[in-house]
Amino acid sequence: MTLAPIDKVTLTRRTLLTACQELGLDATGVEPIRIAENAIWRLPGQLVARISRPGRTRIAQREIAVADWLAEQGIPAVRPMPGLVQPVTVDGRAVTIWEELPPHRDGTVNEMAHLLKALHALPEPDFELEPLEPFGKIRARLNQSTVLDEPAMQWLQDYTDSLEEAWSRLLTKPNLSRCVLHGDAWVGNVASAENGTAYLLDLDSFTIGPREWDLTSTAVKLTSTSSITSREYEDFCSVYGTDVTAWHSYPLLRGIRELRMTAYSARIATEHPNHPLALKEAHFRVRCLMGCRGPRPWEWTAVP
Asked: What is the pTM of this model?
Protein backbone atom coordinates (compact mmCIF):
# COMPACT_ATOMS: atom_id res chain seq x y z
CA MET A 1 0.00 0.00 0.00
CA THR A 2 1.30 3.46 -0.93
CA LEU A 3 0.87 6.07 1.77
CA ALA A 4 -0.33 9.53 0.77
CA PRO A 5 2.34 12.24 1.16
CA ILE A 6 2.04 14.47 4.20
CA ASP A 7 1.25 18.07 3.24
CA LYS A 8 3.79 20.71 4.20
CA VAL A 9 1.54 22.38 6.76
CA THR A 10 1.10 19.13 8.70
CA LEU A 11 4.75 18.20 8.33
CA THR A 12 6.16 21.52 9.51
CA ARG A 13 3.64 21.73 12.35
CA ARG A 14 4.94 18.41 13.68
CA THR A 15 8.49 19.75 13.36
CA LEU A 16 7.53 22.94 15.18
CA LEU A 17 5.83 21.14 18.08
CA THR A 18 8.91 18.99 18.62
CA ALA A 19 11.21 22.02 18.47
CA CYS A 20 9.06 23.95 20.95
CA GLN A 21 9.18 21.01 23.35
CA GLU A 22 12.99 20.94 23.11
CA LEU A 23 13.24 24.70 23.61
CA GLY A 24 10.67 24.87 26.41
CA LEU A 25 8.33 27.15 24.45
CA ASP A 26 4.53 27.27 24.58
CA ALA A 27 3.08 25.89 21.32
CA THR A 28 -0.58 26.44 22.17
CA GLY A 29 -2.57 27.61 19.17
CA VAL A 30 0.35 27.87 16.73
CA GLU A 31 -0.78 29.05 13.31
CA PRO A 32 0.90 29.17 9.90
CA ILE A 33 1.80 32.57 8.46
CA ARG A 34 3.42 31.48 5.21
CA ILE A 35 4.29 28.01 3.95
CA ALA A 36 6.75 28.37 1.08
CA GLU A 37 10.48 27.67 0.69
CA ASN A 38 10.64 28.17 4.44
CA ALA A 39 7.63 27.60 6.71
CA ILE A 40 6.76 30.55 8.95
CA TRP A 41 4.57 29.98 12.02
CA ARG A 42 3.19 32.31 14.69
CA LEU A 43 3.72 31.30 18.34
CA PRO A 44 2.24 32.69 21.57
CA GLY A 45 4.11 35.60 23.13
CA GLN A 46 4.67 37.59 19.91
CA LEU A 47 7.14 35.07 18.55
CA VAL A 48 7.58 33.63 15.06
CA ALA A 49 9.17 30.31 14.11
CA ARG A 50 11.01 29.78 10.85
CA ILE A 51 11.42 26.18 9.64
CA SER A 52 13.91 25.54 6.85
CA ARG A 53 14.04 22.95 4.14
CA PRO A 54 16.07 19.86 5.14
CA GLY A 55 19.84 20.12 5.36
CA ARG A 56 20.09 23.85 6.07
CA THR A 57 21.18 23.93 9.72
CA ARG A 58 24.50 25.61 8.91
CA ILE A 59 22.66 28.30 6.95
CA ALA A 60 20.29 28.86 9.87
CA GLN A 61 23.28 29.25 12.20
CA ARG A 62 24.68 31.90 9.88
CA GLU A 63 21.29 33.61 9.75
CA ILE A 64 21.27 33.99 13.53
CA ALA A 65 24.83 35.38 13.44
CA VAL A 66 23.84 37.85 10.70
CA ALA A 67 20.80 39.04 12.67
CA ASP A 68 22.90 39.65 15.79
CA TRP A 69 25.50 41.51 13.70
CA LEU A 70 22.88 43.71 12.02
CA ALA A 71 21.53 44.63 15.45
CA GLU A 72 25.03 45.68 16.52
CA GLN A 73 25.35 47.77 13.36
CA GLY A 74 22.00 49.48 13.83
CA ILE A 75 20.37 48.04 10.70
CA PRO A 76 16.64 47.34 11.25
CA ALA A 77 16.04 43.64 10.65
CA VAL A 78 14.23 40.68 12.15
CA ARG A 79 15.68 39.72 15.53
CA PRO A 80 16.09 36.23 17.03
CA MET A 81 14.49 35.54 20.39
CA PRO A 82 17.16 36.27 23.02
CA GLY A 83 18.28 33.67 25.51
CA LEU A 84 17.90 30.64 23.23
CA VAL A 85 20.61 28.40 21.85
CA GLN A 86 19.44 28.06 18.28
CA PRO A 87 18.80 26.73 15.75
CA VAL A 88 17.40 23.41 16.89
CA THR A 89 17.29 20.71 14.22
CA VAL A 90 14.31 18.34 13.95
CA ASP A 91 14.28 15.63 11.27
CA GLY A 92 16.93 17.54 9.34
CA ARG A 93 15.02 20.84 9.38
CA ALA A 94 16.47 23.85 11.20
CA VAL A 95 14.01 25.71 13.43
CA THR A 96 14.73 29.27 14.55
CA ILE A 97 12.62 31.51 16.80
CA TRP A 98 12.25 35.25 16.15
CA GLU A 99 10.60 38.26 17.71
CA GLU A 100 7.42 39.12 15.82
CA LEU A 101 7.53 42.42 13.96
CA PRO A 102 5.08 45.18 14.88
CA PRO A 103 2.10 45.67 12.54
CA HIS A 104 3.51 46.30 9.09
CA ARG A 105 2.91 46.45 5.35
CA ASP A 106 5.01 45.25 2.45
CA GLY A 107 8.11 47.31 1.77
CA THR A 108 8.76 49.59 -1.21
CA VAL A 109 11.69 49.92 -3.60
CA ASN A 110 12.49 53.27 -1.94
CA GLU A 111 12.79 51.56 1.45
CA MET A 112 14.89 48.79 -0.07
CA ALA A 113 17.25 51.39 -1.54
CA HIS A 114 17.77 53.03 1.87
CA LEU A 115 18.43 49.66 3.54
CA LEU A 116 20.86 48.51 0.84
CA LYS A 117 22.76 51.80 0.92
CA ALA A 118 23.28 51.38 4.68
CA LEU A 119 24.08 47.66 4.43
CA HIS A 120 26.61 48.00 1.61
CA ALA A 121 28.51 50.68 3.55
CA LEU A 122 29.20 48.34 6.49
CA PRO A 123 32.55 46.64 7.09
CA GLU A 124 32.57 42.88 6.70
CA PRO A 125 31.66 41.02 9.93
CA ASP A 126 34.16 39.05 11.99
CA PHE A 127 32.44 35.75 11.13
CA GLU A 128 32.68 34.06 7.77
CA LEU A 129 30.29 34.88 4.96
CA GLU A 130 30.80 32.77 1.87
CA PRO A 131 31.44 34.44 -1.50
CA LEU A 132 28.40 34.89 -3.72
CA GLU A 133 27.79 31.76 -5.82
CA PRO A 134 24.51 32.07 -7.73
CA PHE A 135 24.48 28.79 -9.63
CA GLY A 136 24.24 26.10 -6.97
CA LYS A 137 20.66 27.04 -6.09
CA ILE A 138 19.73 27.40 -9.78
CA ARG A 139 21.05 23.94 -10.68
CA ALA A 140 19.41 22.36 -7.63
CA ARG A 141 16.04 23.84 -8.57
CA LEU A 142 16.36 22.71 -12.18
CA ASN A 143 17.39 19.21 -11.09
CA GLN A 144 14.33 19.00 -8.84
CA SER A 145 11.97 19.99 -11.64
CA THR A 146 9.99 17.38 -13.54
CA VAL A 147 7.51 19.64 -15.35
CA LEU A 148 9.65 20.76 -18.29
CA ASP A 149 10.27 18.63 -21.37
CA GLU A 150 13.72 17.37 -22.32
CA PRO A 151 14.49 20.01 -25.00
CA ALA A 152 13.62 22.82 -22.58
CA MET A 153 15.69 21.27 -19.80
CA GLN A 154 18.68 20.81 -22.11
CA TRP A 155 18.42 24.41 -23.25
CA LEU A 156 18.27 25.62 -19.64
CA GLN A 157 21.28 23.52 -18.67
CA ASP A 158 23.30 24.88 -21.61
CA TYR A 159 22.18 28.43 -20.82
CA THR A 160 23.20 27.96 -17.19
CA ASP A 161 26.64 26.78 -18.32
CA SER A 162 27.11 29.84 -20.53
CA LEU A 163 26.09 32.25 -17.77
CA GLU A 164 28.36 30.53 -15.26
CA GLU A 165 31.33 30.81 -17.61
CA ALA A 166 30.63 34.54 -18.06
CA TRP A 167 30.25 34.93 -14.27
CA SER A 168 33.65 33.30 -13.71
CA ARG A 169 35.23 35.75 -16.15
CA LEU A 170 33.56 38.69 -14.41
CA LEU A 171 35.07 37.68 -11.06
CA THR A 172 38.57 38.13 -12.52
CA LYS A 173 37.94 41.75 -13.48
CA PRO A 174 39.89 44.41 -11.55
CA ASN A 175 38.03 46.95 -9.45
CA LEU A 176 34.97 44.71 -9.03
CA SER A 177 33.02 45.94 -6.01
CA ARG A 178 32.93 43.80 -2.86
CA CYS A 179 30.67 44.20 0.16
CA VAL A 180 28.17 42.42 2.39
CA LEU A 181 25.10 41.50 0.36
CA HIS A 182 21.58 40.62 1.37
CA GLY A 183 21.63 38.16 -1.50
CA ASP A 184 17.89 38.18 -2.26
CA ALA A 185 17.14 41.90 -2.10
CA TRP A 186 13.64 42.25 -3.51
CA VAL A 187 10.81 44.21 -1.90
CA GLY A 188 9.16 41.05 -0.59
CA ASN A 189 12.06 40.87 1.86
CA VAL A 190 11.31 44.28 3.37
CA ALA A 191 8.53 45.01 5.88
CA SER A 192 7.55 48.55 6.82
CA ALA A 193 6.08 49.18 10.27
CA GLU A 194 3.45 51.79 11.07
CA ASN A 195 6.10 53.99 12.72
CA GLY A 196 7.97 54.22 9.41
CA THR A 197 10.76 51.76 10.21
CA ALA A 198 11.59 49.40 7.36
CA TYR A 199 13.01 45.99 8.33
CA LEU A 200 15.10 43.52 6.37
CA LEU A 201 13.67 40.00 6.28
CA ASP A 202 14.97 36.58 5.18
CA LEU A 203 18.62 36.82 6.17
CA ASP A 204 19.59 33.32 5.01
CA SER A 205 21.12 34.46 1.70
CA PHE A 206 23.65 36.93 3.16
CA THR A 207 26.95 36.69 1.31
CA ILE A 208 29.95 38.65 0.07
CA GLY A 209 30.14 39.89 -3.50
CA PRO A 210 29.63 42.76 -5.92
CA ARG A 211 27.00 45.26 -4.75
CA GLU A 212 25.50 45.15 -8.23
CA TRP A 213 23.99 41.75 -7.40
CA ASP A 214 21.67 43.25 -4.79
CA LEU A 215 20.81 46.20 -7.05
CA THR A 216 19.92 43.91 -9.96
CA SER A 217 17.07 42.36 -7.94
CA THR A 218 15.16 45.65 -8.22
CA ALA A 219 16.35 46.56 -11.71
CA VAL A 220 14.90 43.38 -13.24
CA LYS A 221 11.53 44.34 -11.81
CA LEU A 222 11.59 47.13 -14.36
CA THR A 223 13.61 45.78 -17.27
CA SER A 224 12.51 42.11 -17.23
CA THR A 225 9.16 41.67 -15.52
CA SER A 226 7.60 45.15 -15.65
CA SER A 227 6.42 44.86 -12.04
CA ILE A 228 7.56 48.33 -10.95
CA THR A 229 7.21 51.66 -12.72
CA SER A 230 9.94 53.78 -14.26
CA ARG A 231 9.27 56.42 -11.60
CA GLU A 232 9.71 53.87 -8.80
CA TYR A 233 13.00 52.73 -10.31
CA GLU A 234 14.25 56.29 -10.75
CA ASP A 235 13.48 56.88 -7.07
CA PHE A 236 15.41 53.72 -6.14
CA CYS A 237 18.45 54.90 -8.13
CA SER A 238 18.24 58.42 -6.67
CA VAL A 239 18.22 57.10 -3.09
CA TYR A 240 20.98 54.55 -3.59
CA GLY A 241 23.09 56.78 -5.82
CA THR A 242 23.62 54.67 -8.94
CA ASP A 243 21.77 52.93 -11.76
CA VAL A 244 22.97 49.36 -12.14
CA THR A 245 21.39 49.05 -15.60
CA ALA A 246 24.14 51.37 -16.88
CA TRP A 247 26.85 48.98 -15.65
CA HIS A 248 28.66 47.05 -18.38
CA SER A 249 27.91 43.66 -16.79
CA TYR A 250 24.26 44.30 -15.96
CA PRO A 251 23.01 42.04 -18.80
CA LEU A 252 24.88 39.13 -17.24
CA LEU A 253 23.46 39.67 -13.75
CA ARG A 254 20.02 40.26 -15.25
CA GLY A 255 20.26 36.93 -17.06
CA ILE A 256 21.25 35.10 -13.88
CA ARG A 257 18.37 36.62 -11.93
CA GLU A 258 15.88 35.77 -14.69
CA LEU A 259 17.14 32.19 -14.79
CA ARG A 260 16.91 31.91 -11.02
CA MET A 261 13.28 33.11 -11.09
CA THR A 262 12.49 30.64 -13.87
CA ALA A 263 14.06 27.72 -12.01
CA TYR A 264 12.09 28.67 -8.89
CA SER A 265 8.76 28.57 -10.75
CA ALA A 266 9.67 25.17 -12.25
CA ARG A 267 10.46 23.75 -8.82
CA ILE A 268 7.24 25.10 -7.31
CA ALA A 269 5.26 23.59 -10.20
CA THR A 270 6.92 20.23 -9.50
CA GLU A 271 6.30 20.31 -5.75
CA HIS A 272 2.73 21.63 -6.08
CA PRO A 273 1.17 20.14 -9.24
CA ASN A 274 -2.19 21.73 -8.42
CA HIS A 275 -0.72 25.22 -8.07
CA PRO A 276 -2.96 27.44 -10.23
CA LEU A 277 -0.12 29.51 -11.65
CA ALA A 278 3.28 27.87 -11.26
CA LEU A 279 3.22 25.45 -14.22
CA LYS A 280 1.89 28.01 -16.68
CA GLU A 281 4.39 30.59 -15.47
CA ALA A 282 7.32 28.15 -15.63
CA HIS A 283 6.62 27.36 -19.28
CA PHE A 284 6.06 31.03 -20.10
CA ARG A 285 9.35 32.09 -18.48
CA VAL A 286 11.32 29.44 -20.33
CA ARG A 287 9.83 30.62 -23.63
CA CYS A 288 10.82 34.18 -22.74
CA LEU A 289 14.42 33.21 -22.02
CA MET A 290 14.58 31.26 -25.27
CA GLY A 291 13.56 34.38 -27.21
CA CYS A 292 10.10 33.12 -28.20
CA ARG A 293 8.06 35.82 -26.46
CA GLY A 294 9.55 39.00 -27.87
CA PRO A 295 11.78 41.58 -26.19
CA ARG A 296 11.82 42.50 -22.52
CA PRO A 297 9.90 43.37 -20.39
CA TRP A 298 7.77 40.22 -20.33
CA GLU A 299 5.31 40.99 -17.50
CA TRP A 300 5.95 37.85 -15.47
CA THR A 301 3.49 37.06 -12.71
CA ALA A 302 4.85 36.37 -9.23
CA VAL A 303 4.67 32.73 -8.07
CA PRO A 304 4.00 32.68 -4.30
From this structure: 0.93
